[in-house]
């Protein structure tokens, strides 16, 4: 079955309520390809490797979390950007990208999907009432040592995380996928035992140690693989389309 590209984009925009969120890049259709859609390929970042894999899979739409045209980037279409856009346009492949709307969505968002993978019960927002905070807070069903939870994260995500140990026992957890390490202060204020993000900054070590909380950096890419898969599955069910997630490994 095929549907119009416009219908797919309108539904994704609506479902994610993309227009309401101020972001660092345009959300939605970033590159327009063929007008009819039968197959979606999803992935984390619209790298050339993912584009080539989507072309090989005969996709009509490439759905990603990290797309193009970020604020402050050079607008010239040269080098890496030229090669990526040329591959999309030469193959009539549409690029559909959602950044913050995919982080915060209550059903397919990166943060709720990561919680489901790790067995964390979501309790609410990391900083209730602040629309610019995308992280969440929740709890484990049973307390465990921070080192044991880190091993659990490694088993689930397939990547050894960085652990800054704090309290021996962890139950209450705050988290923000990707580059959300800056939310550690909000997590500390929320009274968590452990804060988890994708990346770490130099000051994250000191914030965790001096405030007596554990911290895990589990990988930007590794923590953000699940939202785009869930969104692709939703769109495939909604329109009876084919959907394939392709994971291009990234150690960061």
TrEMBL record:
Metal-binding as UniProt keyword: yes
* Pfam families (UniProt xref): DUF34_NIF3 (PF01784)
Q: Where does a divalent metal cation bind?
A: 65-66, 103, 220, 224
Specify the domain of life of the species encoding this protein: Bacteria
Record's keyword terms, sorted: Metal-binding
What cellular component GO annotations does this protein have?
cytoplasm
Q: Does the keyword Signal apply?
A: no
Question: InterPro entries attached here?
Answer: DUF34/NIF3, DUF34/NIF3_sf
UniProt-recorded Gene Ontology molecular function terms? metal ion binding
NCBIfam families in the cross-refs: YbgI_SA1388 (TIGR00486)
Membership in a protein family: Belongs to the GTP cyclohydrolase I type 2/NIF3 family.
User: What name does UniProt use for this protein?
Assistant: GTP cyclohydrolase 1 type 2 homolog
């Amino acid at each position: 079955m095929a549907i119009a590209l416009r219908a797919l984009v309108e539904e994704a925009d609506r479902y994610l309520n993309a227009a309401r969120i101020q972001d660092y890049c345009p959300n939605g259709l970033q590159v327009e390809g063929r007008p009819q859609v039968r197959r979606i390929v999803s992935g984390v970042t619209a790298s050339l490797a993912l584009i080539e894999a989507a072309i090989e899979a005969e996709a009509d739409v490439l759905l990603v979390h990290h797309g193009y045209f970020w604020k402050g980037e050079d607008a010239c279409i040269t080098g890496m950007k030229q090669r990526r856009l040329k591959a999309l346009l030469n193959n009539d492949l549409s690029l559909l990208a959602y950044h913050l709307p995919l982080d915060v969505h209550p059903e397919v968002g990166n943060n709720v999907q990561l919680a489901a993978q790790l067995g964390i019960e979501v309790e609410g927002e990391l900083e209730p009432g602040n629309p610019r905070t995308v992280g969440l807070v929740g709890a484990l069903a049973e307390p465990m040592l921070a080192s044991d939870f880190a091993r659990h994260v490694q088993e689930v995500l397939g990547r050894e995380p960085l652990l800054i140990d704090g309290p021996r026992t962890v139950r209450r957890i705050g988290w923000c996928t990707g580059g959300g390490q800056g939310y550690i202060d909000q997590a500390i204020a929320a009274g968590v035992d452990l804060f988890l993000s994708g990346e770490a900054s130099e000051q994250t070590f000191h914030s965790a140690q001096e405030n007596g909380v554990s911290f895990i950096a589990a990988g930007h890419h590794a923590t953000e693989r699940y939202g785009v898969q869930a969104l692709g599955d939703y769109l495939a069910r909604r329109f009876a389309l084919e959907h394939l997630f392709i994971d291009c490994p990234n150690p960061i």
